[in-house]
């Protein structure tokens, strides 16, 4: 990898990140066209159904013949909502294509690179690959594991409490941390919670940020259909899904009339099977799933190894030993049973700390 290739790919990644709030269910992709050591065109994928990054970059230059295209994801070779990007690059006379990573989509998966090479174009793959993979973790996970990339967002005191014994929790963390958490929502395809959280807090589960954003789908695990038809999440723009084990058709019809989409699941211990839930959400084209839930659901997800990353906001306060904990894990009795994590990042958010961890 040359320094020049890395420099232009870094620029393409900056462009790709401009679609971080809007491209779902598509990946975030940027493209830079370079000719005679100068950038002659740039583009990024803005939204599903809109032109891909390569087409946008080509649109922004008059003559791309002989140029090098730097693309953060392998150009597509199939017809979807838009024509194949490979064809557009070939038709434009691009002589060299530098790609950060191969597309994990089975419809593409190396076929785009082969098509470019067959047309006599020099192809290099793997430049800043790790950065490109981080940007599209959700898309990669959905394509390769048939599940979303799952993050759980938690807020706690210094003594590891998420609420007082009464359930009161507003607010443990600072306004700065809450703003940062809304950014996490904005980056997510969907936000998932449990019915107990809805009944206790009547949350909106929307992203309140100062940029245009595709609001995340709201998903509630509600095994017995206890959802009130007056819950505010039903009245907000966007989809709201209830995943249940109940076959009470009268309740279901009332909730659907209120604006919810209700889906039935087989149960394990009277709860929707979480493995099946994740596969279902992948089928709904959800790339990035944010969990905002209480100790019971977080404990179940941790036990079933379904969380890919934890974002924990820790406030400099103490709530006492009667407060509620992060995880309900009744089967942990010995130190040998403890759950361990890798601490990947620690940073200050206002007066709080934000910890980024992955289960080990």
How does this structure look, described?
With 360 residues, this protein is an alpha/beta fold. It is built from 11 helices and 16 strands. The protein has helices spanning 3-17, 53-59, 85-92, 111-118, 129-135, 137-145, 175-187, 195-201, 249-257, 274-283, 295-303; strands at residues 30-35, 38-44, 68-71, 96-99, 122-125, 149-156, 190-194, 217-221, 240-244, 261-264, 267-268, 271-272, 288-291, 309-314, 341-349, 352-359. Strands 10-9-8-7-13-6-14-16-15 form a 9-stranded mixed β-sheet, sandwiched between helices. Strands 2-1-3-4-5 form a 5-stranded mixed β-sheet, sandwiched between helices. Helix 3 packs parallel to helix 4 (111-118). The longest helix is centred in the N-terminal third of the chain and has 15 residues, at 3-17.
Q: Which characteristics define this entry?
A:
single chain; 360 residues; alpha/beta; 9-stranded mixed sheet; 5-stranded mixed sheet; 23% strand; globular
Topology:
Elements: H1 3-17, E1 30-35, E2 38-44, H2 53-59, E3 68-71, H3 85-92, E4 96-99, H4 111-118, E5 122-125, H5 129-135, H6 137-145, E6 149-156, H7 175-187, E7 190-194, H8 195-201, E8 217-221, E9 240-244, H9 249-257, E10 261-264, E11 267-268, E12 271-272, H10 274-283, E13 288-291, H11 295-303, E14 309-314, E15 341-349, E16 352-359
Parallel strand pairs: 3-4, 4-5, 6-13, 6-14, 7-8, 7-13, 8-9, 9-10
Antiparallel strand pairs: 1-2, 1-3, 11-12, 14-16, 15-16
Helix pairs in contact: 3-4
């Amino acid at each position: 990898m040359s320094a020049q290739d890395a420099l232009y790919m870094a620029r393409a990644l900056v462009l790709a990140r401009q679609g971080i709030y809007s491209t779902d269910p598509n990946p975030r992709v940027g493209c830079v066209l370079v000719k005679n050591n100068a950038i002659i065109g740039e583009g990024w994928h803005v939204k599903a159904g809109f032109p891909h990054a390569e087409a946008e970059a080509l649109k922004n230059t008059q003559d791309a013949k002989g140029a090098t295209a730097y693309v953060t994801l392998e150009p597509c070779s199939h017809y979807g909502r838009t024509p194949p990007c490979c064809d557009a690059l070939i038709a434009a006379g691009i002589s060299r294509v530098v790609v950060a990573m191969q597309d994990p989509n089975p419809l593409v998966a190396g076929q785009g690179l082969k098509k470019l090479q067959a047309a006599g174009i020099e192809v290099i793959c793997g430049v800043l690959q790790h950065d490109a993979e981080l940007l599209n973790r959700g898309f990669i996970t959905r394509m390769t594991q048939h599940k979303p990339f799952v993050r759980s967002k938690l807020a706690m005191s210094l003594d590891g409490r998420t609420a007082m014994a009464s359930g009161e929790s507003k607010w443990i963390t600072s306004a700065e941390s809450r703003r940062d958490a809304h950014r996490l929502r904005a980056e997510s395809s969907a936000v998932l919670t449990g019915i107990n959280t809805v009944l206790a807090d009547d949350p909106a589960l929307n992203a309140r940020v100062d940029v245009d954003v595709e609001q995340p789908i709201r998903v509630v695990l509600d095994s017995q259909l206890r959802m009130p038809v007056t819950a505010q999440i039903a009245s907000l723009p966007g989809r709201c899904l209830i995943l249940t084990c109940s076959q009470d058709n009268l309740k279901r019809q009332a909730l659907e009339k209120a604006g919810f989409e209700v889906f039935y699941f087989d149960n394990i211990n009277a709860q929707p099977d979480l493995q099946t839930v994740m596969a279902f959400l992948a089928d709904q084209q959800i790339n990035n799933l944010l969990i905002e839930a209480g100790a019971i659901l977080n404990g179940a997800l941790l036990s079933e190894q379904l969380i890919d990353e934890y974002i924990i906001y820790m406030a400099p306060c103490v709530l006492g030993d009667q407060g509620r904990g992060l995880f309900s894990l009744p089967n942990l009795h010995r130190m040998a049973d403890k759950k361990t994590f890798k601490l990947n990042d620690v940073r200050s958010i206002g007066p709080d700390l934000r910890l980024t961890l992955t289960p080990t």
